[in-house]
Amino acid sequence: MRIVCPLPSDYAVTPLLRLGIKEFYFGYIPPFWSRQYSLLNSINRRYTLQDQSQSKATIKRLTRSGDLRMYMALNAPLYATRQIVGILKMLDEFVHSGLNGVIVADLGLLFAVKERFPVLDIHVSSVVVCHNAGMVRFLAQTGVRRVILSRSMTIPEIAELRRGEKNIEFEAMLKNTGCFNVDGLCTHHHPADMSVAICDKERCHIPRENVYSKLFYLFRAGVDCVKIVDRGASCAQLLKDYKATAWAVHQLNVRKPKSLRQWVRILQGKVAGGERHSV
């Protein structure tokens, strides 16, 4: 299991690299998009400049370094043909600087990127709503390297997808963002109290495990990567979440606990060392 982290807003990746985190994703608004569209028509499902990584020179420097893998988020659900043409022109420059991959949702963009930049890894956004084995097989056959799973998927559902397809990576999000709808199908109609799920309490399918127990179950289900969605955060802010997560992922990879009881003992050992983790 590996950790995927948003590129810090201050571009300070060294402390995160020291934690063993080597995969970063980011949003970027190219000039052609800024000239023609407002932030409401987002190229990557983020609607403020604070959530974007706009220092192209710094991004290119990081991609050239070879110390980390960089993925650009281009995960709007749909692009017009002229927008795809502009995105491909923009990607030319980043690919030549060492960009490793893109996160996409629009199948038209997916096929266009695959044809023009076969060197790029294609990660499919949770916006695609990949919930069944047939969809996973289709994406694997198109050359997709990774599927980012919907927040709403349960552990048994994820494990079933893993059993059905071994030639594609799965990425899961550790924390929900307050939206209890299915990614990609959300109409942004939410209750005033976002802590209340919009579902029958008896049948609600939203995973509610503590982060550390959820990590264990995702590991056992065969998930390859995990992330906490927090684009626009500084390195210091990211470290608050990712420091403990990186330790936990390392323990899972090295010690490979086979039961939650074993995992709790590992966490209790960490508590004895001075840090508290609840399960």
Structure keywords:
12% strand, single chain, 10 helices, alpha/beta, 279 residues
Quick recap:
The protein has 279 residues and is of the alpha/beta class.
Oligomeric state: single chain
Main sheet attributes: strand count, strand direction, barrel closure? 8 strands, parallel, barrel
Rounded to the nearest angstrom, the distance between the terminal CA atoms is 19 Å
Which structural class do the helices and strands define?
alpha/beta
Q: What is the helix fraction of residues, given as a range?
A: 25-40%
| Overall radius of gyration | 19 Å
Number of helices: 10
How do the helices and strands follow one another from N- to C-terminus? Answer: EHEHHEHEHEHEHEHEHH
The global form is globular
Note the beta-strand portion: 5-15%
For the secondary structure, the number of strands is 8
Low-confidence stretches: 195-208
Strand order of the largest sheet: 1-2-3-4-5-6-7-8
Average pLDDT figure: 86
Q: Could you walk me through the main structural features you see in this protein, from its secondary elements to its overall organization?
A:
The chain has 279 residues and is α/β, with parallel strands linked by helices. Helices cover 40% and strands 12% of the residues. The chain is built from ten helices and eight strands. It has helices at residues 14-18, 31-36, 56-65, 81-96, 107-116, 133-141, 155-164, 211-221, 235-255, 260-272, and strands at 2-6, 23-26, 69-74, 101-104, 121-124, 146-148, 169-173, 225-227. It has an eight-stranded parallel β-barrel with strand order 1-2-3-4-5-6-7-8. Helix 6 links the parallel strand 5 (121-124) and strand 6 (146-148). The protein is globular. The chain starts with a strand and ends in a 7-residue tail after the last helix. Mean pLDDT is 86; it is low at 195-208.
